[in-house]
Amino acid sequence: MTSDNTQETLSVQIANQIINIANDRHEDGLPVDEIAAGLRHAAANFSAFAYFRSENKGLDPNAIADEFVNLLTQYLERHRPTEQPAQGLYQLIEQAKNEI
Description:
elongated
């Protein structure tokens, strides 16, 4: 396993732990918008903290923002609800099948 794969695996594990906390808060009844805002705030805060302590001194803060946008775009596609057929048309087709 390469160092990049190890780092990616570690970052995904950390992300999953944080998501578990967010899911628990949602189950407690907190609004998802507030939870998401808190996660973004925490991500920005810790990313700024890490930026000045990183061993990668050539890291551009815009690269961090670009990574966030890319991840958000990816997850928007993953969580997009599937479109259901129009119920009126579906019911009409089912009715026609039953009449035949």
